[in-house]
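Question (not urgent): is this output format expected?
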Amino acid sequence: MQYSADARAEHRSMPLIFKKRCSTRWMLDTSYTYSTTKDNDSNERSVSSSGDYPMQQDDLSWSWGHSNFDIRHKFVLSAGYELPFIFMASTIIHYRSGFHYTAGDARDNNGDNYDRNERAMYQDSGGNWVLADRNSYDQPANKRWDLRLSWTANFSSRLSLELILAVFHVTNEANWRPSNTTLIDDGGDQVSYFGRRNHPGQPRHSQF
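Got this back:
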């Protein structure tokens, strides 16, 4: 077994940032980033033997495509406002495009006795054989909104008390994503529930 650093990656991004300091009882920090990240290995192959290997281990050009952590659009807004009676209200709004995933094939098409790294191979409507590209399918976007209210009392230079009420994921958005990414089963048939958005994200919760 040989481990080598032979992967290649390409990242391009354009961030836009706007900030307003807390000079008149309120502050704002917002950013939008447009980016693309492509590679032929997103650290699937690691010395920890993660069990995730490229389809053609001797030719990584087969694996060139969207990175596992490629995010096309990302928007983050955080704001705070000083209320009367030493209260502070703040919020964070987060939006990002969905991560990519690969359509899998349960058969051992490349004959390496390992069937978890196969990309789907199937015939299209015209009868042509198609090999699915790596990370060519998209999960849905992820949205989150958090709120926080705090109250602080300073009793001395060394003693203070802060009470915090935080609500995470206020809208309780389901943020559904698919749990099955295998398109072709071991018999060569297409899986009907491939890519079905049936797995929810984290629900709303709060803490005091």
